[in-house]
Amino acid sequence: MSEPISALNHASFDGIARIEECGLQGMITLRGDLSDKLVTKAVKDATGQKMPGQREALVDGETGVCWMTPDELLVLVPYAEVEAKLAAMQDALSGVHALAVNVSDARAVFRVSGPTAREVLGKVAPFDFSSDVFQPGQIRRTRLAQVAGAFWMDDEESFRVVCFRSVADYVFKLLKVAAQPGSEVGYY
Fold first, then answer.
1. 8 Å CB contact between 120 and 73
2. Rounded distance, CA 80 to CA 173, Å?
3. How far is residue 168 from each of residues 9, 20, 44, 47, 143, measured CA to CA in Å?
4. What is the DSSP string of 20-44?
């Protein structure tokens, strides 16, 4: 059997910010009534995190949960644990109108880090990245130039960006261009 590899096999670039493909990340899309106690318990059991509020990302390393829509979460677990966590989640939700699906291999994850990370992402997404608007613990879904994406902050100078695997090369190159040395704008 072949070994799984990430979309860009840990590609990286150093410019005004560091751009790196994070590698394999376990991801489960969970759809259902987010106020249901069984859904809340399934999330807590899988991640150790409480149910996130609107546009909240509760992430610690490879584990966490991100609010995506009023009835959808992105559950993050280590890649090696995704099948076991998914099976446990599906068992816990067997009597609930909910859907849990492994989307790990359909997504790519990037880290954009450094003092100008906000500026780099501000060049590619129609969103206000100023520190008074966007802080660690929040998530947004929007466009990354011509494709859909989501991002959250791990800390004050580090973002994680998620996109479809099929557009990973495009997003990497887009971020690379936005992080070219000498391209500082000084807005954020």
1. no
2. 28
3. 11, 11, 30, 26, 14
4. EE----EEEEEEE-TT-HHHHHHHH
Q: pLDDT digits over 11-48, tens only?
A: 999 999 999 999 999 999 999 999 999 999 999 999 99
Distance between CA 113 and CA 126 in Å, rounded?
A: 19
Q: Label residue 1 by pLDDT band (50, 70, 90).
A: low
* Distance from the Cα of residue 121 to its chain's centroid: 14
For residues 57 and 68, the answer to whether their CB atoms sit within 8 Å is no
Of 96, 29, 28, which is closest to residue 69 (Cα–Cα)? 29
Number of C-beta neighbours around residue 28 at 10 A: 25
Dihedral-angle region of residue 134 (phi above 0 means left; psi in -120 to 50 means alpha; beta otherwise):
beta
How far apart are the C-alpha atoms of 81 and 102, rounded to whole Å?
Answer: 11
| CA gap 62, 133 in Å, rounded | 25
| pLDDT average, residue stretch 38-66 | 97
